[in-house]
Design brief:
Blueprint (H helix, E strand, L loop, with lengths): L6 H11 L12 E3 L15 E5 L10 H16 L2 E5 L7 H10 L4 E5 L4 H10 L5 E4 L11 E6 L1 H15 L4 E6 L4 H17 L4 E6 L6 H13 L4 E5 L5 H10 L4 E6 L10 E7 L1 H13 L7 E5 L6 E3 L9 H16 L8 H10 L3
Parallel strand pairs: 2-3, 2-4, 4-5, 5-6, 6-12, 7-8, 7-9, 9-10, 10-11
Antiparallel strand pairs: 1-3, 11-13
Helix pairs in contact: 1-9, 2-9, 3-4, 5-6, 5-10, 6-11, 7-8
Length: 359
């Protein structure tokens, strides 16, 4: 795997502005905005940037929505033309990607690891086009016309575990994942490690529902967990997680939920402890802005963690999470950034963490 530490360079323009990022198939939906010629930042080219969502949809209150927010910032700040194609099923990925490629868009984003194989195929068939993908390094074989962006989800999830382990009254917390794949397991094991760090006696109950776009499944699974005594649930399930918020909200006081990817507290303001922020918006913004300025990081992987402000916790955390717990989160964040603690992202790494971790 060819990885270079270039995250700071790629994010520099974005972080200075914000600290807190045609021809599609019949099953697709597009949205287009008009460029703002009076935007403040100057770029060398007024390029066109497109994105293709996975099956969670652009309004998933999570991953895809964060990416589109980054795209809209490109339009507002830089006057770039932006558009999306919404995939209803996995068979839409190739035609949606090809739609933008054949229409000669300057950069086309694949939002999510589920599009990895399809992106590789489109990239190979169109060597003169530029593409980018979020959440996959394409097994380390990144074509020169592709930029791959990944995140250290386990680091942000560790902080969510610190919150859950500190806040639970029943000593029983839950994790609900979308599909059981290595990417989502990074959320699970980082979360498990954070819980263990502050409350080794707490039990972590896990479940994978098999979908990122089924809120009803998320609601049923959350209900079962809460009924079993779990009082805090962290989800990494895309739009499926909307059901977790719905269930917590219906149950009322003392049933907590932790969101993912973007600040999701608005889904259940009185039941949300925090959200694990994943700055997909920043990544999309920065790579696209670089291209507009004549910089292309094709063939490279960009990996973003706490140190690069690629992951973190929501600014609304202090609403329902006590100050002493937030201070504890900050302490662990510092230790992770400094390398004193390494958040695990796999089952094996978690077992090693438990065996070696000392407060």
């Amino acid at each position: 795997m060819k990885t270079r530490t270039i995250a700071k360079v790629l994010l520099a323009g974005t972080l200075s502005a914000s600290l807190v990022l045609a021809g599609c198939g019949a099953a697709s939906k597009k949205k287009e905005g008009a460029p703002d010629a009076g935007a403040g930042e100057q770029v060398k080219q007024k390029i066109r940037v497109a994105m293709v969502t996975d099956t969670g949809g652009v309004n998933d209150n999570s991953f895809n929505q964060s990416a589109w927010e980054g795209m809209k910032r490109l339009e507002k700040d830089l006057g770039l033309k932006v558009q999306y194609a919404e995939s209803k099923k996995k068979e839409d990925y190739v035609p949606n990607l090809n739609g933008f490629v054949k229409d000669k868009w300057d950069l086309t984003w694949a939002i999510g690891y589920l599009m990895a194989e399809d992106l590789k195929r489109v990239a190979a068939e169109n060597p003169n086009t530029k593409l980018a993908i979020v959440d996959s390094n394409l097994d380390g074989n990144i074509p020169s016309n592709v930029t791959a962006v990944t995140f250290k989800e386990q680091e942000g999830s560790f902080l969510m575990g610190v919150i859950a382990g500190s806040m639970t009254k029943s000593n029983k917390v839950g994790f609900i994942g979308g599909i059981k794949v290595p990417l989502i397991e990074k959320f699970e094991y980082g979360f498990r490690a954070g819980v263990h760090a502050v409350n080794p006696n707490a039990q972590v109950v896990t479940a994978y529902v098999g979908a990122f776009n089924d809120a009803s499944k998320g609601k049923v699974q959350a209900g079962a967990m809460y009924q079993s005594g779990v009082d805090v649930i962290f989800h990494a399930a895309g739009a499926t997680g909307d059901g977790v918020f719905s269930e917590a909200k219906e149950r009322g006081k003392g049933f907590w939920v932790i969101g993912v990817d973007r600040d999701q507290s608005y889904l259940a303001p009185d039941n949300t402890l925090s959200s694990m922020i994943k700055r997909v918006d920043n990544a999309v913004y920065s790579v696209s802005k670089d291209l507009a300025n004549g910089i292309w990081n094709g063939g490279k992987q960009v990996e973003l963690g706490l140190k690069e402000d690629g992951v973190g916790y929501a600014p609304t955390t202090s609403k329902n999470t006590p100050a002493d717990v937030v201070a504890k989160v900050e302490d662990y964040k510092k230790q992770l950034i400094e390398g004193k603690i390494k958040a695990p992202g796999t089952a094996a790494e978690f077992e090693q963490f438990k065996a070696t971790f000392k407060k």
